[in-house]
Amino acid sequence: MLEPASVFFYVIGLWWWPALYVGLAAQSADLLSRGFHLGRLPLVGLHDTLIFLTASIVAFSVPFYKLISEKRLFRLMLAGTAVVITFAAVFSPPHEGPLPALLSTYYFEFHVALSFFSYALFGIGAFLGVLYLAQPDPVIEKRQYKAILFGYVLFSVSMIIGGIWAYYAWATYWLWTPKELWTSILWLYYGFYLHARFRPFWYGRKAAWTGAIGFVIVLFTYVGVGLLMKSSHSF
Amino acid sequence: MKKVWNIFASMKTALILMAAIAVLFLYGSIDMTIVPAYGDLTFGALLKWMINAPISLSFWLWGSVGLAALLAVSTVACSIESLKKKQGIMLALAPQIIHLGFIFIIIAHLVSSVWGYRMEGYLAYGQQAAAPFAGKNVSVEFTKFKSEKSPGGATIGWKAWLSFLKGGTIIKEDYMAPNRPVFFNGFGFYLEDVSFKPGPMALIEVSREPGAAWALKGGILFVVGSVLLLILRIRQE
After folding, report:
1. Mean of pLDDT values over B159-177
2. Which of A17, A132, A184, B37 is the most exposed, having the fewest neighbouring CB atoms within 10 Å of its CB?
3. Contact call for B223 and A157, based on CB within 8 A
């Protein structure tokens, strides 16, 4: 019931910002109730992680929304993304039952939660990049840089925690599978962005484009690799 | 010499190297999905696999290693040049801490790819096997087993006890469980699986990851530098 409600409020959010708060509240309540039901953070499988990603994007957007002047386009991108991702979650079967023994560790929960927080910030970086391309205001570009830098820090912490966990679970901190390669591609890509932005040649529209396109790589690393490639993180 | 140094100290070089590694990884991820021969890539030291694999399979890994080495040199050169510039000490230091962390992570991969060790095998209940410590004459025995059940009665985990013996005397005793290996003499003993036919047996993986400590230190430096940079950038505004 809470999932369709959150889709409904996110749709209203396309026109009216406060509805996004209601959608977020519904989604948070959904996550909490599933968490209590399962006795763990609901972070396994496409259904739960899609909902977690949407809630993270909307929650992290709040401070950015308050700081930017061009609110309409930002709201449309944010609400549109929230609707599409939550809609996809509704049609993905949730993972029920106890966790496999290897996933029953705080390392797993921190690793996944931080990954999705970073994905959310990369998503906001993409929205801000599009916003800058529509309205080239240097303030928006700075916000994009900060969203991506913050996301990059969380992503790096998530990778380190994942490495520690893998060392205890799989006898190595690094597995040579497509997921790890795409994680590295993502890490290199945003590392590229964070460096290139300081070059006069790249600053401005090119940097905004780079930051925006990064979210496509994020989505492929998250969904595409899990569905299309043989990896350690398959759905 | 100055010209070569300038090339390595240029951010443009670093950017090209990052992009090139990403492209090779992209190729590798697709090839891995198509070609089954990558199955044993994770199982063992990377360098050994790369030497034994046909070049048509391993070229992107050789290329990535080469480019990562160049990127490490470029990182050091960029850091040295950056420190020469006059700017706030913390703002100058934060990226260098990140760079140092990155170098440590590269070293970690290098060390593990050359000196890493992995093998696995079944050990039956009560059976002894030679531990892979060269010249130590230590054997390992699977001595006890316990399954863990959920309140509903489903098996949710296992514990398998190992004893390390030297000259018939137990020198260490501990249990393995999922996410809980036993470490001894620089090696990790991991419980991979258990089976009960024809009798209780534990599938044990023995691993040595000499780069793990470097990777951890590198990771911590990387994060400390990144957090510092983030705080400084926020305060700058």
Report:
1. 91
2. B37
3. yes
State yes or no: pLDDT of A188 exceeds 90. yes
Contact A156 B229 (CB under 8 A): no
d(CA A205, CA A169): 44
Looking at residue B36, its pLDDT comes to 86
Query: Are the Cβ atoms of B179 and A191 closer than 8 angstroms?
Result: no
Residues B108 and B155 grouped into a single domain: no
**d(Cα B210, Cα B113) in Å, to the nearest integer?**
9
Count contacts between A and B (CB, < 8 Å): 133
Task: Identify which of A149, A184, A188 has the shortest CB distance to residue B230.
Answer: A149
pTM of the entire structure? Answer: 0.92
Q: How many CB atoms lie within 10 A of CB A201?
A: 9
Residues B81 and B159 occupy one common structural domain: no
A25-56 confidence digits (pLDDT tens): 999 999 999 999 888 888 888 999 999 999 99
Q: Quick one: B184 and B225 in the same domain?
A: no
Q: What is the dihedral of CA B44, B50, B56, B61, to 10 degrees?
A: 100
Same domain assignment for residues B96 and B9: yes
Judge if B85 and B110 occupy the same domain. yes
- Quick check: B25 and A191 CB within 8 A? no
What residue spans define the domains of chain A?
1-98, 100-235
Q: Do residues B166 and B219 both lie within one domain?
A: no
Helix (H) or strand (E) holding B129: strand B128-130
Q: What is the ipTM of this complex?
A: 0.92
Task: Please tell me whether residues B184 and B223 are part of one structural domain.
Answer: no
Q: What's the pLDDT tens digit per position in B58-110?
A: 999 999 999 999 999 999 999 888 888 766 778 788 999 999 999 999 999 99
